[in-house]
Amino acid sequence: MMTYKLTVFEANGEKLLEDSFEAGSEKEAKELGEKILEEKGFLEHTHRVTSSLGKLVLFHV
């Protein structure tokens, strides 16, 4: 399992959410990140999911 970080931003750059979670693969991390975004109502905000190694897994502007 690897740790991934989900960050959501407002248009002005303000952080709205920063959350960490574990996933077994990048695909699973992307799916879990999208699920969290949908549950919290942030799917249409600028967001990213990165791995603990710094790799960008999901990005939306």
How does this model look, in words?
The protein has 61 residues and is an alpha+beta fold. It has one helix at residues 26-40, and strands spanning 2-9, 15-23, 46-51, 56-60. Strand 3 (46-51) and strand 4 (56-60) form a beta hairpin.
Low-confidence region ranges: none
Sheet bearing the most strands, described? 4 strands, antiparallel
Helix content: 10-25%
Backbone CA Rg:
11 Å
Indicate the overall shape: globular
Give the CA-CA distance, first to last residue.
27 Å
Q: What is the typical, i.e. mean, pLDDT?
A: 96
Major sheet: arrangement of strands: 2-1-3-4
Based on secondary structure, the structural category is alpha+beta
Kindly state the number of beta strands.
4
Strand content: over 45%
Task: Return the string of H and E elements.
Answer: EEHEE
Figure out the total of helices: 1
Q: Which SSEs are present, and which pair or pack?
A:
Elements: E1 2-9, E2 15-23, H1 26-40, E3 46-51, E4 56-60
Antiparallel strand pairs: 1-2, 1-3, 3-4
Concise summary:
The protein has 61 residues and is of the alpha+beta class. It has one helix and four strands, in the order ββαββ.
